Amino acid sequence: MMTDTHHYNMHPEERPASESIDLEKVWFIVRKNSLWIFLIFLCANTAAYLYVRYTRPVYESSSVIKLDIKSEANILGIENVNQNLDDMAGEIELLKSNMFFSRVIDAIDMRVSYYAYGRVIFQERYQNSPFKVAFNILDPAYYDRPIDVEILNEEQFVLSYGPDDSRFSHAYTFGEEITTPHFHLLVELTEPYVSELDNSRYYFVINSQQALLNYLSQNMIVAPVNFNANTIRIGFQGYDRQKVKDLVHVIDSVYLQYTQEKKNQATEQKLTFLDEQLNSIEQKLSKYESYFEDFTIHNKTNNLSSEIGETITKMEALDAKKYELLDMQETVTALSEKVSKEEMILTEPGTLAHVTNEVFESIRQLNQLINEKALMLGSYKENTFAVKRKEQQITLLKKDIVAVLQKYKEELSREIKDINRQKSQMEEDFVKLPSQETQYTKNQRYHSLYEEIFLSLVQKKNELEITKAGTVTDFVVLLPATVPSRPVAPENMIVYGVGATAGLMLSLIFVAMGYIFNNKINSQSELERYISAPVLGTIPYANKARLKAGKLIVSRSPNSSISEAFRAIRTNIQFMGIQGDRKVISVTSTISAEGKTFFASNLGYIMAMSGKKVVLVDVDMRRPKVHTIFNRENNLKGVSTFLIGEYALEECILPTGTGGYDFITAGPIPPNPSELIGSAPFSQMIEQLKSRYDVVIVDTPPAGLVTDALLVMEKADLPVYVFRADFSKKAFVKTLERVQKTGKARHISVVLNSLSLTSDRGYGYHSKGYGYYDEDAEKTAIPAFLQQLLGKARNSPA
Predict the structure, then answer these.
(1) Cβ-contact 660, 673 below 8 angstroms
(2) What is the pLDDT of residues 533-577, one digit of tens each?
(3) Which of 98, 460, 493, 532 keeps 20 to 30 A from 147, CA to CA?
(4) Helices 241-299, 435-469: crossing angle, 10 deg rounding
(5) How far is CA 724 from CA 598, 729, 760, 772, in A?
(6) Cα–Cα dist 378/242, whole Å
(7) Which of 305-319, 434-448, 469-483, 629-643 has the highest mean pLDDT?
(8) How far apart are CA 537 and CA 599, in angstroms?
(9) How far is CA 496 from CA 35, 48, 54, 138, in A?
(10) pTM of the model
């Protein structure tokens, strides 16, 4: 029992965590603020509906491409997964690069975007605009700025642009060239215009290159689908379903075309090199053929002496070898120049003798570095770290290759000098031969050699052209782009779900905040947790309108719930032993407006109805109210004038109109109420009233404001402390505890006023009015036929 008493004396902040949440109080806050909770939930869901209603749907079209990535490790049976990932990452970065976006922009007409105005949102008119615009921008500031077009009829329109304060607007004819200092425009209708069937207000935007690049980069989606299958998904999002489909189709086409161009690039470079060599040899052959023709015409013959045949054969062999060395020297020189200039070099191992495969491998690496640098310059600036690092690699590799080629060139020079020495020796032996014949034979030898080389190069060129014609890309479109049937955003169910969840969360937060900041006593159970004094009972709620008809409600509505509540309190008071010499009941509260005077006056009436003589004494001499209950004036004959000896007690007692029920007003407001209440005449007045009446009810001032109530409680047999539901603060309990600690209020009891009849626990809550029950409000909540049954039950003898 002591544990329970200590628990009731705890303040809210001292209670255990298990009881920190009062579910009954939570339910009260929910019911009290049900309208606000409903409005919060409604606003959240309305916001979700408006978002769905006025947000333009976003469509997405996508395709799936399979990459044919080959690795030399696979030939040896080694699976190189990381290489595949790196290759896929490289292809994805290529698809996201500005270089690739520039190719897409060139492949599709996106320089002008057309839009139609709407009541709330605008709509892009992709491929269905009623007019087309040809332009020449003179002032770059007019890129990416809307220019309005209002179609008047099939011949005229109004063009408007510029800020609102200096907006330019003028009427033009379709097909008329518009010339301004900022741009040149030509606007033409694409189809017959019918104003009744179409919107008349449009605008168009001339997109800059950077704006288009940003548009593609922000809306394009490139992601791997399956690493093992080397497949990637290319998607594009936008407001027009046909536009996103076309863009994905163009992206696929440009990508496949680009990969095919990259694959044919090596072949093109080889063909270029062969063309250069063929042109050079063809010119030399033409010179030799001219020489032979002139020699035959001049000498009338082209037959050489058989005596010099052997010598000629040897010299031909030396000349052939020398030409081969000279050609190789020329090729080496050309290679060195191309390496220095960072040009693509097309050659194969074995083309040049004495040149190791390591040199050709270095040349292949140089070609790869040059290609990588060219690709990086499409996405990065020249002064970036990656580009400079690539340039350093190219410079070091060029230096190594040039050094090796220079060494090889020196070896060729030595061999040529040796052949020249041998040839000089043979020429010395050949001086006896006619110079013309010798020259003829020499040219004939060179002609035959160049002819063989020419035929060989022609054959090689034909093979490369056949290879080029048969080249196909290794990339395959597995799933082509299609027109999307449904938008990907906004997702209506998700938005509605978010709206409902947000409404629920905001409502819970609202209730939680209301619970946290609600510092008032709202129920009998809550009051019992904070106090140790017994609760005599609770009084139902009545509103202001009911009170205006008279605050003595038990006399006007004897069968109401309020009357029943006062009867229950009267019975509980009898159990408290208020009879015999124990007759005095004091009524107080913490502050005004908690209903102590209402309780005291109606309690007096209900006790008088049980056959007892009752007197109600108003000792709240600062703000007297008892006289207002009985519609009387606070006359001069009252408690204050009696205590100063100006009137006798009999002169101060007034009848209420109900047999056995009298009252005494407070009288004129004195300057020293506390001294009067603590005086001997006040004790004498109480004793005299006890001798005259069965019950003496004293309406005292609020205990939380003045000490007058403590003086009266000390003389009372049953002090009653009144709390008002949804009005009295939890801190008022401290005032009651302070009164109890003084020891002057013995057997103090508590009454909770202003509970509505809607609670699951007998009485509920209400937040308006002064805390009194409204019988009319109770009737309005009950159907008519039930009201009739209740009326019969209340009027029955039982």
Answers:
(1) no
(2) 888 888 888 766 555 545 688 888 787 888 888 999 988 888 887
(3) 98
(4) 160
(5) 11, 9, 19, 9
(6) 30
(7) 629-643
(8) 11
(9) 21, 6, 14, 49
(10) 0.54
